Amino acid sequence: EADIYQTPRYLVIGTGKKITLECSQTMGHDKMYWYQQDPGMELHLIHYSYGVNSTEKGDLSSESTVSRIRTEHFPLTLESARPSHTSQYLCASSEAMASGGAAETQYFGPGTRLLVL
Amino acid sequence: KNQVEQSPQSLIILEGKNCTLQCNYTVSPFSNLRWYKQDTGRGPVSLTIMTFSENTKSNGRYTATLDADTKQSSLHITASQLSDSASYICVVSDRGSTLGRLYFGRGTQLTVWP
């Protein structure tokens, strides 16, 4: 069982609200990721981080932002939520390997299901 | 275009039966292939990982195979249990970047009935 946590697990909010999805891991992993997943669809990478003060945008364009001030913490923020942001958001982490990123296993949190009305 | 295709999209089997899930990919250059299990409302959990030189890997009742020449993989589940009901996701990693980009399939939704 991976030690990676996400809160809240479920969130229902109105349009225009600012929200922050929390993600924490206790494994000391340098790399962390945010994915967006709609029902029956594949996971899409929206943000990733190689370590403290490192953040990059992923393959899927997202209006969200992330920060990495501490190794264990990788929060995702939406400044003004819209119904199109309704989705499941999954956080993951992996241990940086000397050989590069291809062989790393990503450990996923339980996800946050977001519904924007 | 998704470079990882899984079939079937959904599958219903009776408890105790075996089943095989398929994954075809076009990702190149290939690094490794993983199968993940995702329970409803949970994050994916890694079941197996195979590199180019490996053609089979087992994890309990789960056995994954890989044919790197035809770019196909399968996940065989023996003596299915109710707890096997989940989405099974095939994930292929390339060697094109330090990040080791992951390509996700849409998953096969398996339902095991008593």
Topology summary:
The complex is a heterodimer of chains A (117) and B (114).
Chain A: E1 4-7, E2 10-13, E3 19-25, E4 31-37, E5 44-49, E6 56-57, E7 65-66, E8 76-78, E9 87-94, E10 107-108, E11 112-116
Parallel strand pairs in A: 2-11
Antiparallel strand pairs in A: 1-3, 3-8, 4-5, 4-9, 5-6, 7-8, 9-10, 9-11
Chain B: E1 4-7, E2 10-14, E3 19-25, E4 30-38, E5 45-51, E6 56-59, E7 62-67, E8 72-77, E9 86-94, E10 102-104, E11 108-113
Parallel strand pairs in B: 2-11
Antiparallel strand pairs in B: 1-3, 3-8, 4-5, 4-9, 6-7, 7-8, 9-10, 9-11
Main beta sheet strand tally, sense and closure of chain A: 7 strands, mixed
Number of strands of chain A: 11
Radius of gyration of chain B: 14 Å
User: Helix coverage percent of residues of chain A?
Assistant: under 10%
Percent helix range of chain B: under 10%
Nearest-angstrom radius of gyration of chain A?
A: 14 Å
On the 0 to 100 scale, the average pLDDT of chain B is 91
Q: What order do the SSEs of chain B take from the amino end to the carboxyl end, as H and E? A: EEEEEEEEEEE
Secondary-structure element series of chain A: EEEEEEEEEEE
Provide mean pLDDT of chain A, rounded: 90
Detail the poorly predicted runs of chain B: none
Instruction: Give the beta-strand count of chain B.
Output: 11
Name the overall outline of chain A. Answer: globular
Report how far apart the termini of chain B are: 37 Å
Largest beta-sheet characterization of chain B: 6 strands, mixed
What fraction strand of chain A?
A: 35-45%
Quaternary arrangement of the chains shown? heterodimer
Q: Name the largest protein-protein interface in this structure.
A: A-B, 26 and 29 residues
Unreliable residue runs of chain A? none
- Which percent band covers the strand fraction of chain B? over 45%
